[in-house]
Amino acid sequence: MCERDLRWVHSARNHDTIRAASGSDKRISFRDHRIWFDCSDFVDKLVFTEDEKAKGVILYDRRSNYWGFYLRPSVNPHAGLGRVMLSLTLLWLKREGVKVIKAEVKRENYGSRGLHESLGFKLAGATELAIEYEKEIKDGNA
Ligand SMILES: CC(C)(COP(=O)(O)OP(=O)(O)OC[C@H]1O[C@@H](n2cnc3c(N)ncnc32)[C@H](O)[C@@H]1OP(=O)(O)O)[C@@H](O)C(=O)NCCC(=O)NCCS
Fold it and tell me: What percent of the chain stands above pLDDT 90?
């Protein structure tokens, strides 16, 4: 992710559907968005593109090992793009030497839960609001 992605990522992360899926449904000002972008060098910020068009974002926090992601709200849902984006990300993270990926998924986010489970994430815990998933990356799997 670079400077030119800042605007569309800001608008996507404030979109109703993305806020509903994320841990906090608070709107983020552009100023705070930029501070996050400038000050979170421990977070890998990947932009997923198709036909040279940005279609989604994946964030991987190297301190906590949690990832988060979303497709641009304008992308057709259930067309298989989320699976492609995450499968490629798993390969990239493996190449980067990442050993574990964690995810916190809202209970009612059945799409993301199904996606994590089909990508080999295991149940690691649960709260009233969310399911915790974890995936170990070993040689030979991603
Ligand atoms: C989650 C998200 C990336 C999925 O992208 P997508 O392109 O719609 O998903 P895909 O078409 O690739 O579907 C992949 C898999 O997800 C699961 N899935 C998708 N929608 C589902 C639903 N409504 N119920 C259950 N499982 C579902 C299925 O396992 C599906 O695999 P299948 O098509 O082989 O059955 C996308 O919906 C998104 O950006 N959502 C908002 C943000 C978000 O929820 N982020 C995750 C926060 S933890």
Answer: 93
Q: Whose CA is nearest to atom 24 of ligand 1?
A: 111
Using only C-alpha atoms, the chain has a radius of gyration, in whole angstroms, of: 15
35-42 contact pairs (CB < 8 A, 24+): 37/1, 37/6
Amino acid at position 86, single letter: L
Name residue 71's amino acid: L
Using CA positions, which residue lies closest to atom 25 of ligand 1? 111
Pocket test for ligand 1, best of 72, 83, 88 (most atoms within 8 A of CB): 83
The residue whose CB lies within 8 Å of the most ligand 1 atoms, and thus the one to mutate among 112, 113, 116, is 112
The yes-or-no verdict on residue 140 having pLDDT over 70 is no
C-beta separation of 92 from 48 below 8 A: no
Overall average pLDDT of the 57-75 stretch: 97
Domain-wise residue ranges, the chain: 3-136
Q: Which fold, 3-136? A: Aminopeptidase (3.40.630)
